[in-house]
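Quick one, T. Sequence first:
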Amino acid sequence: MADKTLTRMDLSEAVFQEVGLSRNESAQLVESVLQHVSDALVRGEQVKISSFGTFSVRDKAARMGRNPKTGTEVPINPRRVLTFRPSHLMKDQVATGNKG
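Structure tokens:
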């Protein structure tokens, strides 16, 4: 597996290289897109990016869990979790190493 992590700065640089906006405008564009995605998820909306995948928020109910070390039961509070479901195209690209 690769040790590299894709960062906001990397995305901004890619926009700068591909689109030709200034570095500052590219950074602002990336920030704006990420902010729109975040805001939609906070509102509980799904975010679907064609040929990439779908981000959604699920509400998980309260339940009883078990501490694996001691075996004692512990209540788990209700919470919202972020899920990502990749598209079939994304799954295929990852499986083939993007060599298709």
